Amino acid sequence: MKDFDLPDVYLAILPSYIDEYGNGTELIDLDGNVSYIKCSVKSCLNKTLKKYAVDLSAIREKYAKSLGIRNSFPIPLARDFTLIQLKVRIPKVAKDTAYGYICYEKIKKIEECASFSLVYVGESNIKVYQKKASIEKHMRDASMMKTFFANLDSLNYDDKAMYNLPATKADIALLYEEIVKIKFKIEKM
What we know:
Number of strands: 9
Largest sheet: 6 strands, antiparallel
Protein name: ComK protein
Organism: Thermoanaerobacterium butyriciformans
Radius of gyration: 19 Å
Distance between the termini: 56 Å
Helix content: 25-40%
Number of helices: 4
Strand content: 25-35%
Shape: globular
Strand order of the largest sheet: 3-2-1-6-5-4
Order of helices and strands: EEEHHEEEEEEHH
């Protein structure tokens, strides 16, 4: 079903087994309505990335590495729409995906149970097969990535209060990147 139109912003895209189809995607929109799409989570994610003109490999190479995030890095798409990757099912077949994408900004709370955690997103709750500490780490990574991208906005020099804030890892990574560029230019001379 390649002609399905995804909403601009949603709460989650999760892998799901659809009757008489197989591996598909469960889409939870901002109102909490659930719809099932006959395509993979990866296809839905690629459609979203294309809609926002985001290059996933460039984010991985440049920003995720700079921030020290190796696997399952957050994907910033807009100011209030960052996706984090969480394990939301145990696949029945080896090649089926276990990971879905949840909107970081819409997460209200996390509750840890015996073998899974419940993530409350909007008015929905999603069963995640990761510990609460692991989910919180993904959320901190998303926060760092958002800070990193917020720092790339044009600077407002009239606002002196922003210069009194403590430096974050994102700030330091940005400075490090600039220093390396300057060093490279000096060595070329």
